[in-house]
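User: Just a sanity check before I run the rest of the batch. Below are the structure tokens for the first item. I only need the designed sequence back.
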């Protein structure tokens, strides 16, 4: 900040302090006097804080940190939140889907997300796409199928809390199982991804001359008379056959993929547990098939995902349950706080520092996803703990005794 703009502020502070001293001497309580100095009141009742005219009360109630931001917020940080509740829902006979992409949330350049519901027997058509697909089962059960570049097969059943990864270009399908199908989250390492425009089996065959299909499989052209003229996308059929039977058939001649595309998060112990909550980190270290890293975070009421940043990649977030808030700070004195709840998407660009705080009365569960095989972060605490105490204290003046007590290892979730 240029010195000129600091001068009046400093003078105002000085006058403020001296007038508080005068009021204190006159018997006026200091706290009340200090509140008078602020242009904000704690209950937002000052005339300058009134909100006449139209307002959206329900949206305001969901976003208290936008309506009354912390006084530390400043500058023009672009929005980093979008809700699946605002996304168009495409409804088909076998279920529905909706997506949040860079077209909805402009800063989410490197990742996009999809929610999908499949009823029991509902099939997300055999397809592939250029980017990789990371998925988390949010409800129910599904059968996934995929074939790799060596013809090796992966057929797996996925339960709530488990996940999968389909590398880019690998063809796959998803089918809802009993008793009530499933709902899942998909995350793609491409902000411009479009779930409505993937490479579909039926779409491709409908756009290939029947005589070429006949030559390809060495059968008469009439064999393909029943190929749909239009994509199926999400359609309804009977439940699949037993898992063992479908595995045996698909693995014939080539075998199974060596590194499963399925990961059973439900059976994994948390990577870290503290008083404030827990985290499971799933990346290429424990899930070799993945080129997308993720952290599944649970914050207890009052818990804090500590101040940190990610030096290697952008972070895409999905909120599963509870309520929380996040402040993202960016260079040049920009900071903004936004509120999150179930179904919201958050996005933080590479190396931008942030925290997530549980502001509700129940657990806050959210997912951090990164378009890289390896999870990496740097926490404020870990940074300061491994920098000369003298130097840190010369910056922030909290005293070396306070600095000595900072944990030598990052806490991830506070309190420890
Ligand atoms: Mn897909
Ligand atoms: Mn983060």
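Assistant: Here's the designed sequence for the first item:
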């Amino acid at each position: 900040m240029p010195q000129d703009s600091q001068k009046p502020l400093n003078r105002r502070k000085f006058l403020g302090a001296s007038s508080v001293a005068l009021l204190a001497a006159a018997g006026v309580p200091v706290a009340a006097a200090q509140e008078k100095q602020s242009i904000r009141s704690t209950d937002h009742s000052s005339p300058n804080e009134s909100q006449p005219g139209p307002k959206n009360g329900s949206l305001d109630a969901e976003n208290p940190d936008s309506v009354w931001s912390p006084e530390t917020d400043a500058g023009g940080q672009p929005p980093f939140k979008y809700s699946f509740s605002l996304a168009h829902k495409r409804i088909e006979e076998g279920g529905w889907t909706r997506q949040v992409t860079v077209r909805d949330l402009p800063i989410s350049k490197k990742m996009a997300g999809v929610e999908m519901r499949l009823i029991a027997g509902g099939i997300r058509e055999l397809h592939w796409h250029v980017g990789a697909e990371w998925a988390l089962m949010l409800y129910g059960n599904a059968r996934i199928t995929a074939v790799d570049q060596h013809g090796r097969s992966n057929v797996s059943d996925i339960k709530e809390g488990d996940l999968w990864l389909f590398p880019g270009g690998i063809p796959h399908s998803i089918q809802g199982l009993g008793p009530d199908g499933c709902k899942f989250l998909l995350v793609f390492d491409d902000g411009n991804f479009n779930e409505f425009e993937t490479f579909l089996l039926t779409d491709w065959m409908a756009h290939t001359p029947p005589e070429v299909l006949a030559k390809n499989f060495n059968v008469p052209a009439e064999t393909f008379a029943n190929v749909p003229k239009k994509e199926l996308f999400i359609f309804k059929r009977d439940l699949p056959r037993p898992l063992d039977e479908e595995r045996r058939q698909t693995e014939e001649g080539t075998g199974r993929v060596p590194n499963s595309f399925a990961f059973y998060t439900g059976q994994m112990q948390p990577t870290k547990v503290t008083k404030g909550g827990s985290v499971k980190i799933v990346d290429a270290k424990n899930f070799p098939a993945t080129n997308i890293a993720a952290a599944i975070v649970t914050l207890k009421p009052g818990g804090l995902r500590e101040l940190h940043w990610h030096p290697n990649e952008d972070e895409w977030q999905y909120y599963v349950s509870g309520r929380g808030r996040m402040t993202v700070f960016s260079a040049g004195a920009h900071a903004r706080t936004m509120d999150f709840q179930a179904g919201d998407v958050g996005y933080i660009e590479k190396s931008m520092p942030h925290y997530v705080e549980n502001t509700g009365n129940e657990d806050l569960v959210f997912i951090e996803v990164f378009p890289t095989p390896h999870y990496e972060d740097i926490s404020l605490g870990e940074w300061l703990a491994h920098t000369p105490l003298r130097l840190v204290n010369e910056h922030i003046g909290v005293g070396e005794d306070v600095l000595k007590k900072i944990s030598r290892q990052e806490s991830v979730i506070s309190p420890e």
